[in-house]
């Protein structure tokens, strides 16, 4: 079982009960993660689902008869320290889907390091990730433990598509990257339409409003160590919550939803960490992303209005998070008025009827233009994320050797690398460089 490479590093490997455990399998995302694993895992793979309600877990399994593999059930309560300890000490890899994470998540980082268990979640609270980096990155790195937040739609496709372009520029042309821009488009395929936001997403936003004490919503260098040249990086990557017409895609674009503040610091952290392994993103590298609006309106006029509305909402939020606490209370009360409860979200029937595309536009330090794209099947936040995080968990459970940069509180590009692309394709996301 995976706790280190005994042959290369002299680490004694411990036999654990489960190679993989999914915590929070009965939620909106967790159910689809369970289905993907149950469909693709061999019958002899030792895995489990964990949560507070055994009846819900049993019903989840019984409602999915077309499975190759059946998991065990583990009772677990995320607010009970002994329960969390018992869960983590018995698995090689933990997929944690019971967010939001800033409230109860730190214990999982602590215990995963203690028990040498790799950890994966789909969090978006950059202020919390920053805190975990400061407190646990060094210890996890020394113990060769992978702690990987942001392992779903945000930020796996964005981080790996950027790495693909960077690697292509260096390998094919021996040039460094000056800037990367990714434009995302959501595609309706007809059928059932359901745009409801999930309780987990609302919880994440409430956590950010309550706990972001370092202005991570606006600081795109927030995940870099203090010794990095954060001032220059911050200036080059300053986020602008704006609507504009993008000539490259011939469409109106606005801030990427649902978390326009997340991918930029993750990609910048990848650039910093990978530079230590000889993968140079370029001295003046910058990254930005946005999305087109045809998902929200059919006409160009409607798309322009949708882009402006999205930009306005995010600007207001950014001002509130950078300002006095009472401003945050106004937004929290607005979120509470939506009446979204934990476990709420779009219907299962609607999720296959949304696909998405990432189009990357890059430029080298010598002026060379490159393009790449990722085409993905399924709703990004609830179906695609579920399959991606499932494949990430499997990848960490099945691979026994890692480059040194992959340990610690890391990013998709550093923990997974381009070696993960075939598994990402099994999750429904296909990446490729494009002819310019």
TrEMBL record:
One of its GO terms (cellular component) is plasma membrane. GO terms for biological process: glycolipid biosynthetic process. Gene3D superfamilies: NAD(P)-binding Rossmann-like Domain. InterPro entries: NAD(P)-bd_dom_sf, Saccharopine_DH-like_oxidrdct, Sacchrp_dh_NADP-bd. It comes from the Bacteria. Residues 21-147 form the Saccharopine dehydrogenase NADP binding domain. It holds the Pfam family Sacchrp_dh_NADP. This is Saccharopine dehydrogenase NADP binding domain-containing protein. It comes from Halioglobus japonicus.
């Amino acid at each position: 079982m995976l706790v280190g490479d005994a042959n290369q590093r002299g680490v004694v490997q411990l036999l654990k009960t489960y190679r993989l455990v999914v915590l929070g399998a009965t939620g909106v995302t967790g159910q689809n993660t369970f289905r993907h694993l149950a469909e693709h895992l061999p019958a002899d793979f030792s895995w489990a689902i964990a949560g507070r309600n055994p009846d819900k877990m049993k019903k989840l399994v019984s409602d999915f008869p077309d499975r190759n593999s059946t998991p065990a059930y583990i009772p677990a309560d995320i607010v009970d320290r002994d329960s969390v300890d018992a869960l983590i000490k018995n698995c090689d890899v933990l997929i944690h889907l019971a967010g939001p994470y800033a409230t109860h998540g730190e214990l999982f980082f602590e215990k995963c390091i203690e028990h040498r268990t790799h950890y994966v979640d789909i969090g978006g609270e950059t202020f919390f990730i920053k805190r975990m980096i400061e407190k646990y990155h060094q210890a996890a790195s020394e113990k060769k433990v992978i702690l990987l937040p942001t392992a779903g739609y945000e930020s796996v496709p964005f981080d790996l598509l950027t790495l693909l372009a960077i690697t292509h520029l260096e390998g094919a042309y021996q040039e460094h990257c000056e800037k990367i821009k990714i434009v995302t488009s959501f595609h309706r395929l007809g059928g059932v339409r359901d745009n409801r936001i999930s309780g987990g997403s609302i919880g994440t936003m409430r956590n950010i409003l309550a706990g972001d004490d370092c202005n991570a919503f606006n600081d795109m260098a927030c995940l870099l160590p203090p010794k990095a040249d954060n001032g220059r990086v911050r200036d080059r990557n300053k986020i602008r919550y704006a609507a504009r017409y993008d000539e490259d895609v011939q469409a109106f674009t606005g801030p990427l939803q649902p978390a326009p503040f997340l991918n930029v610091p993750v990609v910048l952290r990848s650039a910093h960490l990978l530079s230590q392994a000889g993968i140079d993103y370029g001295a003046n590298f910058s990254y930005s992303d946005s999305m087109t609006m045809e998902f929200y309106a059919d006409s160009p006029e409607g798309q322009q209005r949708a882009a402006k509305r999205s930009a306005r909402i995010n600007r207001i939020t950014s001002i509130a998070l950078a300002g006095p606490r009472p401003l945050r209370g106004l937004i929290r009360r607005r979120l509470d008025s939506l009446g979204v409860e934990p476990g709420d979200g779009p219907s299962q029937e609607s999720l296959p009827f949304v696909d998405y595309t990432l189009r990357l536009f890059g430029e080298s330090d010598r002026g060379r233009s490159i393009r790449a794209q990722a085409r993905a099947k399924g709703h990004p936040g609830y179906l695609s994320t579920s399959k991606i995080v499932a494949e990430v968990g499997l990848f960490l459970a099945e691979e026994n050797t890692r480059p040194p940069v992959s340990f610690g509180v890391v990013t998709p590009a550093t923990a997974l690398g381009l070696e993960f692309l075939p598994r990402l394709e099994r999750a429904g996301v296909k990446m490729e460089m494009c002819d310019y």
